[in-house]
Write a structure and sequence with these properties.
The structure is a single chain. By secondary structure, the protein is mostly helical. It has one domain. Helices cover 79% and strands 0% of the residues.
């Protein structure tokens, strides 16, 4: 198991948009069903993408885990992550507004009375593969392990990425009231501090990748 996969999965986990979607789904007439559709839809899509990518590249016999190529990719990914964090911190890059804008308000209203298909689609849209997933797949492919091992690493990445969401759904099934209160606080925190959360996640992951890639190229 590549340590990079674990770091990148944890960096992917804090997504305020996902918390907002979960909070909206609690207003549905049958929240258990739509919450399950949300998790299963997003997880199935993300896992399928990961398995498809590693399966395609597995046959190429790539093995560059300890090479300058891997270090260069890590360094480039780290610089991109730090650049994005700096852009968000300085206001040059804007995150989607959670409190203003008719388009987002319409989306949230729709999630309060969703069909199962709408909830599943929301799970996909709030967990679209981004920079960290691409870099994690690169780490998996670069090691040239068995296909089964690579698939297991894809599953581990997604398990860590979705751990918070899955944990909330389990808690909601057991203690709905406590789960609602906890998610309301998390949603409020995400709405007020989405910029800080995003900057923090991208800065930590960016520094890790930049240092790792730089040491690899200089070593």
């Amino acid at each position: 198991m590549s340590f990079d996969v674990i770091v990148l999965a944890l960096a992917s986990a804090p997504r305020p948009a996902g918390v907002a979607a979960l909070y909206a789904l609690l207003r549905a007439a049958h929240p258990r069903r739509v919450l399950a559709a949300y998790v299963l839809g997003g997880l199935a899509f993300s896992v399928a993408i990961g398995i498809l990518v590693v399966a395609i590249f597995h046959g190429a016999g790539l093995d560059y885990r300890d090479s300058d190529v891997y270090s260069a990719i890590a360094l480039a990914g780290g610089i991109l992550a730090l650049s994005f964090a700096a852009g968000v911190a300085t206001g040059r890059r804007q995150l989607p507004s959670r409190s203003e804008g008719a388009e987002e308000s319409a989306m949230i209203r729709r999630l309060r009375r969703p069909s199962l298909a709408t909830a599943a689609l929301a799970g996909v849209l709030t967990h679209l593969p981004g920079l960290f997933y691409v870099l994690a797949l690169n780490a998996i492919i670069a090691g040239h392990h068995s296909l089964l091992d690579e698939i297991v690493q894809v599953l581990v990445f997604n398990a860590l990425w979705f751990a918070g969401t899955i944990g909330f759904v389990v808690i909601f099934l057991l203690r709905p009231g406590a789960a609602r209160r906890a998610l309301a606080r998390a949603n409020d925190l995400g709405r007020r501090h989405s910029r800080e959360i995003t900057v923090g996640a991208f800065t930590v992951a960016g520094l890790y990748l930049t240092i790792k890639g730089g040491i690899g190229l200089l070593g």
